[in-house]
Design a protein that fits this description.
Layout (H helix, E strand, L loop, with lengths): L9 H4 L2 E6 L7 H5 L4 E6 L4 E5 L17 E6 L17 H11 L8 H38 L3 H6 L19 H8 L1 H22 L28 H31 L6 H27 L14 H4 L1 H16 L14 H29 L11 H28 L11 H34 L1 H7 L7 H14 L5 H25 L9 H38 L1 H14 L15 H19 L2 E7 L1 H12 L2 H4 L2 E6 L3 H8 L1 H4 L1 H10 L2 E5 L53 H13 L9 E2 L5 E2 L1
Parallel strand pairs: 1-4, 1-5, 5-6, 6-7
Antiparallel strand pairs: 2-3, 3-4, 8-9
Amino acid sequence: MGADGSAARPEESGTALELLVHGVGGTTPEKMLDDPRTVRITGDDIAAVFRRADDVDAEKRPRDGRTGPVPEAYVWCNLTSGNGTRALWLLLLPFMVVNLAHWMRPAARDRRRTVRLYGLLVRLASLTLTVLLVAAACEVALDLAAWQCAGTRACAEAHSWLGFLSPDVSDGGWWSRPGRRLALAAVVPAALTGLLWYLSHRTWSAYESQQPMARGGEPEEDSGRTALGRPGFWYGRRLVARLRAAHTAAGLLTIAAAVCSTAARFDREPGGPALLDTLGRLLEAGLVAGGISVVWVVCRRGRSERYLDRQLDEHLVRRLPLAALVLLALAAVYAGWERPGWQSHGRLSGDATFGGIAFVQGLLVVALAVVAHLLYRTHPDPRAAMRGLAGPAVATLACALGGVMSGGVSQRVADWLDGTGASILGPPVLLTWQASVIPLVLLVLLGHCAWLGRRTWRSGRAQQGAVESEYPAEPKDAERTRRIARTRAMAALTDRGPRLLGVTSASTLLLGAGALVGALTSRKTPAKAAEGAYVFVQGAADTAQALGSWLIGLGFILFVTWGRRAYKDPSARRTIGILWDVGTFWPRASHPFAPPCYAERAVPDLTWRIATWIRATRGRLVISGHSQGSVLAAAAAWQLEPSVRGRVALLTYGSPLERLYGRWFPAHFGPAALTALHHDVDCWRNLYRLTDPIGGPVRLPGDCGPEVDREPLKDPLAYGRTAVHPLPSAILGHSDYQADPVFAEERARLLGRLQPDLPGPRAQDDSGRSSA
């Protein structure tokens, strides 16, 4: 299209456009377009469409000798890698993982209530993760620092910055009272909660507030048989705002409960002040009412996908964090009241808090597994990961990540405050027991990985004959054959992912339950008859706890080091961006503090570009998506109106649409959804290699030849040295699909299939199947 917006009619010009969408890790428009001179056509510094400088006005010059389509590149990598603040997203990893569990539900028909129950259980599990993170911050700041260390002379003298809080070091200063120490220390978890709110609000304004293209009066049944085609799927502004208010209030209420609970217990002791006892009970009642309100807000409403919901919730929901902040301030004033004879000793109520959170999370995960099984039974899909239990398994993993991060931070701070290990009691017993689970889980994983390694080795040996048969005319090289076969076998490990997740989640759930039981019974005195066995078990537990604590410390150091490197090093940040590319494709449906969904910006971008170009030029358009770009391309195609969608061809390569998304997210990318996509677009072709660990076939019949999938591409292109390839050809795997001549051949075939003015009729053969 020209600078003035004019364009030639395709009946006269035969205009064709190839819209390139890159995959994970990102790239530059120069590389995508194979030209050092590129121009931004539309977009901003975050995501934009580029063309070669010579193609800016290509629609005005249709007969300039061009043989192929006009290439355009949609570059979206800054949505995930961006600037150094993206390193902070590492702290949000458990939230991102539990958000994935929402989208992993099995496909089900006519089970709307069960589907809503599934979403509700995931939202409740997400709420427990927020409470867990804030409780861990309270454990560090309130219990370890303000209560235990500042209340102990040896620890306080070792850390001069705590001197003004210690009654022994500061000679009874104003801040030395236990309640005032707790009130002051509450600033740390409150600041963390405020940071989470700020990050969620800022990304909400940038991502969730991007409105998709309106589709006037389109019937829902014409939008495809997947929720990704619904008008409001990529517009979760209302739900994220609602959940953000609830989770922020939950964090503040957790801090308020940690501040006032210890003072309330002291006031309820015999001889305590009656007025403070009454105030404490009223404050606790307010905290309970606030907690009920938070749960009600989380349970009341889920996603609105069937229409574009532009409203926000009523003032009651929006002001919930303010009410929680008022309760926190009242709790700080109440705890800071003068109480003669009140001294800090022992621990705060961390054992009960963390034990209760772990117990509730276990119940939610089990209930989620039951609901997922019921959904799977209504419409079994043999390709679905873990027979529909992938969502509960991922939720278990999210809870385990939250527990490991909480235990790691608490243990490291305790070691730092108490170098000798004798002055303070340290973190709650449950966190120590949870640390003992880590070596056992790692042993299980190592054993399973060894089994996978053996199978991969055997698979590589078995494929050597098939590799040699694909290059019959070339002299054979045993080492070359082994390398190609080994690459294929390693690529097939992706299909073993469900088994690995199942082993990890099952062992984590069972051993986590054992850690909870061990923490509850560790203080009981054993009977004499079982004393010998108890000593043995206790010794083994102590060894596992020490090893687990060391592993947690190592993981915490690596975590901080990785985050610091990602903050300063763009290449490391791009590596983290790959993780977000896969994990943040989905909208924030259960946790508002998860990293934002880049597809809520990318999918409307693609939809607007495709629809406006086709309406202006009536030309032919091929969406060319590689890897994760093929997922964005499919999502954009679902959002198009039928009149526009019928003019679009889809070329995917290295695509995880069925291999990963179809198996892990069967409700949205299962066989029914991909079949609907195949019938909606004019035609679709998919390319893949056996050496590709990410891309694979979509396994659907097609109308662009015998199938949507072309037979696997050769990789490498040449076995040995040939006249065309005088140097050894590289094994490309997941990259550089355009280097294969088949790519240009299939693209030309798609363009030939597209009709320039009206979608062409699909011929039927004798068997009733469509053909090109």
